[in-house]
Amino acid sequence: MDLAEAPFQTLSAAVDWYTDWFARAALPFWSTVGFDQERNSFHERVGGRGGDEVAQRRARVQARQIWVYATASRLGLGEKHLRLAQSAYTSFVRKYRHSDGLFITSTYADGSPLDATPRLYEQAFALNAMAALHIADPEMSEPLEDAQRLRTALEPFRHTRGGFREAGPHPFQANAIMHLLEAALAWEETGQRDWLSLSDEIVELAGTHFIDGQGGFLREFFDAAWSPASGLDGRRLEPGHQFEWAWLLDRWGSARGSIWARDASAALFKIGEAGVDQTRKVAVNGLWDDLTVSDATARLWPQTEYLKASLALGHIESSIFAAQGLWRYLNAPVPGAWLDLQQTDGTFVLEPSPASSFYHIAGPCFAMAGMHKSRPNFDR
Fold first, then answer.
1. Are the C-beta atoms of 77 and 89 separated by less than 8 Å?
2. Which CATH number do you get for residue 247?
3. Nearest alpha carbon to residue 268 among 210, 310, 217, 314
4. From CA 111, how far away is CA 204, in angstroms rounded?
5. Fewer CB atoms < 10 Å away: N or C end of the chain?
């Protein structure tokens, strides 16, 4: 196994590398090569020759990219990024929003509907994009009004036993609701206090049903009573989601002064690290609920969540380790692009870069951008 070594050994050096790569390579690449100027929308993925004209353009990808560029502007990485986000948002609403206020799943490249199903997952990312736009430019009234309308439109997703149903084969799942919590917390940060109740409701659901009372880990799939799903689905764990929930519960717990949430966050982080391959420095895709590995391949996104949670929880050594593992994915032939799937032997599948990953990558990069500005002694 021949694994390339990252060009940094300290957190300070990692912060410098990531901040530079994000600002100088990734943001310019995905706003030009990754953006379809003619249709005013983002490509679903980018290959060696530019944006690929795949059959679908998912709403989640458009919303995620809007969130990235609006947040980049707010953090002082360029006013042009906000202009791009606002322009793309106008197109996004026009192409993806249904008359009932919900957003469809996907369109063809030309903007005509492909999958008109409204999924909770898509609504969560639309709300997150709206919050980012509102924070970046409070004078732009549409995101606030649109978010209020969309929240009302979410009522049909509610489940009689609490929480929300998702469309499709796994209606009772933690993942879509997790991103709804992320969006609610984002709206809390805008000063809109009416979102606090939604955040609290979701955290209570996580504490009573999603997180296993004995093992401390977070399950993925459930039945209509929010008990673990039958068969293998009920036993599946994803290290990446353990890290994401750890980050969210730490965030919620800090805002509420909740010791339980901070303790649960620490436990989930530890479970996530049980799924880290120490040789490859990567979080694997899957575990069983006895913490044995179910899928030893490693996509890009769990690495970003490992790094983001490590930074948020103040784990310096884990932050360096995760940053070194993620670096291999970003060490792509085209600056600003990335590799998505690492195989068990440490090699990568060579395929177009999925745009959906930029949201995941941006999370720790934004955290590092803030650290870069403050320049504390990271290596103490």
1. no
2. 1.50.10.10
3. 217
4. 39
5. C
Q: Could you tell me if residue 227 is inside a domain? A: no
Across residues 344-355, what is the average pLDDT? Answer: 96
- Output DSSP code: residue 232: G
Number of residues that this document lists for the chain: 380
* Model pTM score: 0.96
- Whether 316 maps to a domain, the answer reads yes
Identify which of 143, 159, 161 has the alpha carbon closest to the alpha carbon of residue 151.
Answer: 143
Rounded Cα distance between 99 and 97, Å, is 7
pLDDT of amino acid 47: 86
Q: What is the largest CA-CA distance in the chain?
A: 55
Count of structural domains, the chain:
1
Residue 333 domain-assigned (yes or no): yes
pLDDT for 51 equals 64
pLDDT at 118: 97
C-alpha to C-alpha distance for 356 and 63, rounded to whole angstroms: 10
The answer to whether residue 176 is domain-embedded is no
Give pLDDT, residue 49: 61
How far is it, in rounded angstroms, from Cα 130 to Cα 189? Answer: 12
Q: Dig out the tokens for 23 from the structure.
A: 């600002």
Q: What is the residue range of 323's domain?
A: 1-32+238-380
Helix (H, G, I), strand (E, B) or coil at 35: strand
Tens digit of each residue's pLDDT (9 = 90 or more) over 71-99: 999 999 999 999 999 999 999 999 999 99
Nearest-5° angle of CA 97, CA 163, CA 70? 40
d(CA 115, CA 120): 14
In three-state form (DSSP H/G/I as H, E/B as E, the rest C), the secondary structure along 48-114 is: CCEECCCCCEEHHHHHHHHHHHHHHHHCCCCHHHHHHHHHHHHHHHHHHECCCCCEEEEECCCCCEE
> What token pair was written down for 204?
């209570």
Neighbours of 127 (CB within 10 A): 28
